[in-house]
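Complex record, two chains
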Amino acid sequence: MRKHYSTKIACRVIVWMFACTSGVNAAIPYVPISPNTIVSKLPQTITGGGTKLQAENNNATKARNQALEHIAYAQRSGDARYFGYALGILKRWQHGDTLPDELLVPMAMAQQALHRFDAALDTLKPHLNRHPEDTQAWLIRAGIEQVQGRYAAARRSCEQLLGRSTTLVEISCAAWTERYTANAQMAYQALRSAVRHATTTDDSVLNWSLILLAELAEINADYDYAEQVLRWVIERAGDDIRPLTALADLQLRRGHTQALLAMIEPDHPSPALRMRRMLALIQQGTLSSDQQLAWLRQHFDAGNRRERPLHQRDAAIANLYLFNEPHKAFEQALGNWQQQREFADVEILLSTALAIGDRTRIQDALAWLDETQFTDPRINPLRQALSEDRGDAS
Amino acid sequence: MQVEDRVKILIVIMLWATNLLSTTAIAHKPSDSYMTLDVTGPSTWLRWDIALRDLEYANGIDLDGDRTISWGEVQQRYPRIIAFAQRQIELSASGSLCTTTPREQQLADHTDGTYAAMIFDVHCTAGGVDGLRYDLLFDRDPTHRGLLNLRLPEGEQLYTLSPEQREIAFDTSAPVSPMTTFVNRITEGTKHILSGPDHVLFLITLILAAVPLRSTRVPHPVSQIRGLVKELLLITGAFTLAHSLTLPITLFDLVTLPGRWVESAIALSILLAAVNNLYPFLPGRSWAIAFSLGLVHGLGFASDLAGLTLSTESALLALAGFNLGIELGQLALAMVLVPPLYLYRNTHLYRILALRGVSAVIAIIALVWLVERGFDTRLTTL
């Protein structure tokens, strides 16, 4: 017995020793060995930075284009810092509550990206009153309403696109609002057909529709097709992390952890992807790097010190599955639920509630799922487990 | 329609489409800077880490415009970076502004990239620091936050500086006793030794060698725990004594060696100690090896010892506390490692896996470090 215990200690020590060498202890100051050492890489698509922006501070059109450049980079790379820069560029033009008309839509985009959904809707409102024909603004509004779970409002916004946009965009928007409802099968077929017949030359529009198509395929249990579509988007989208994240999530749900591990490097710069890699290792029972966990914890700790944490959903996932802190995870999932109500938000809320055995505080959420007829079958096992949990308790 | 207009429309079309997926994959965090303001000792210091990307955005440090930042470019811009940083923060004592004096140029890696890690000595004529005003980047990025860890004698307090809360006031008037300084440095020393993979691997190598007492050229297992404890105390004591000698030499700038040499020499010391476990060739007992190679590690400790007060009477006390902390950290590591090693000292498992296997792995790691540091290259992603 004593020997067995000693073996465990010895193994832990050896594992810990390797963990010590598997990464740099973050934030310990150091001096690079050579002046030629590259210590930071900057986005290729953004030139000039803040110094150039100040020099061109008197031209709203230039400000708009620069803000859009920053937003586009932030979306592609997942680097929220550039949303902040975009917001800074636009704020310089804000006097009181007013902003030049051409800057309203970029401002709403930046606010949406930073999860300031109500502020984004307020920004869009005067613009849509003046320009009801602006399909771009309607689509942003539909997106926000969709994320907030206000499906009826989102449908109305999508209807504003009819006859004003391409068929692919119109059907994508409609399918988007129906994906969690009983109409998901119909939406899937319609979007699949629209993609097949699409003539758009705009990669971004097509990529968006394809990622949506993959989600609808998964909802309709067409898993291989979903994966195939996402792999195609990844090929097309280059360094865009969004299709990669979508595929990683699908692989995690399918238990295809080996494929995920092959796809994401251990030291990938994106915390979201690195976290998904760790979740795959947890699923396999092979996560052994305390350094990796410490790195991720540091990332979330910085976010939690903000008055409005930006990554509450991912933080809740990490706390539930990686850091073994289900109560903290539940509070974050509840906080996130106040802002976002997509599938992943529902999933983490129910998972954390199940983990701590608290059904009481998700009553409103469960009622909302019934009320909106949220019928995404991916939620069913969790709802079933929650019902059984209640049965056991009684 | 003008070409420029078409381009603009294209950008907008692209953006509204990509924007729809924005809530699913935001990965990195928004801009933060990290500050540690230490008022636990008789001297106050501030460490301030600002992301190089933020500095580029505010100040333009990519001098050749190749969209990468080299350490050389940071070094060239460092005076400007320091001056910029000093304009963005105000420390005050009883309403009077304090002055800040920069120390060495360093970098630090946070989860979202590399930061300039600046250390300032803070001098106040009107008593201890009791106020801070922070203005970094707010005019360019309203989502930027300054994350402050205020280290007081009674513990640590966290603050978040934002455009809405740019100023904070705190009470640091409680006198700091020499004993508090001493105890704080012990904690720092312990943390320091246990968080440095170089030093930990070196110690593991020495501890592995200590379990089979090598009084002769042929290792043989210790027979009594007393002998082992004595040997371990000798080894850790010799290591502590050695770096106690070289640490102040570097800290007080009596000798200045390039960081590259020191880091390479530390890797070499680990390699020598590990190879010595496999094929004993170093003369003398383990404690003598620990002492001679420990001299090199002392040079390395100095580069990480940002907060040690040097210009006061308490400097030596703080230094003694730090060294004692290192000694305690080593003993803690030994207490974890030695029991299982002692139990298995007579077995094949020990001789093959622990002594030879682990020493070989450590030798390989040290060799990789030596090549990487010596030739400024990257062989692995470790």
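Note: The radius of gyration of chain A is 23 Å.
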